[in-house]
Each structure stands twice: as structure tokens, then as C-alpha cells.
Amino acid sequence: MAVLCPTLVPEPTLPGVPGGRRAKWETVLDPGGTGYEISYGAPWEAGSGRGWKGHLWRNRPCCFFHFTLEPYLGNAPASGAYFFVGKHPPEHRAVVGGYHGTLSDITIADHIIFLFTRNGVHYDVTEHSFGPGTLTLLSRIVRSLRPVRS
Length: 150
Prior knowledge:
The chain has one helix at 134-143; strands at 2-6, 26-29, 36-40, 65-72, 91-96, 99-104, 111-118, 121-128, 145-149. The protein is mainly beta. The mean pLDDT is 85.
């Protein structure tokens, strides 16, 4: 099976930490090599230390980026494939990057989630939310996905 890889991703332009260096790309392959995460930097969150709220602007692609892609062979991931306590979160049909699929109306670990099918293979893509502009960037990345033979 060919793995889908983005041909368009943002580049870090500023350090994620004051006085630091620009972050470097990291790629993590899932066991089996079909899904992956690509990222640079780290998010500023409540556990980041004193004064963290003043650095929330660094959660944007200038300093931090985190994208995941997971293909599902066979059955599509069930609507609400993520584990929730209590009521299942709302989701709706959407077109992202030219693909019709399901977009979750909440974030999981601060990621927006889009499920879609391409050539009979079901995919789950997520991107760390940075507020306005997140869905636009995810749409551009999904539109740029190209098959690469492993």
C-alpha cells in the first residue's frame, strides 16, 4: 500500500523558546510504517511553566506544528473512533482539501480531526489547533497529500 505524504508543510520561522533555536523536524512512524506524525517544536500549555500564557502565540506554525495521518485498511474507522467518556462529540460532513469526509466539532489533545476516504483507503488526519487558520492549513496539507511507495 502506498503511504500518503504531504508535499506542503509549514516551516519553523521563529524559536519556540525565547533565546532558543528554531525547532527541527521530527517524524515518528507508527508500528508497521503506515501511519506517522510529523512535527517541530512543542506546545505552550499549563504545564509549560510560569508565564506560559504569554507564550501561547508560539503555538502557531511559526514555532510549533504537529500533524498525524493514520490509514485504516478494511473497515472505515467508526464515527467517533476516538475514546470518549460519556456522550460522543458532535461531528459533521465537510470538504477538507478537496475530500468529502467527517470533521469533528471538538479537538482531541488540541487536535482537529478529519476522517476521509481516498481510493478505497480510509484515513484519519489531525493537526494541532492554533485557532483561526488551523482548518485552512489542514485543508492545504490534505490537498497536497501524494502517494509514496514504502
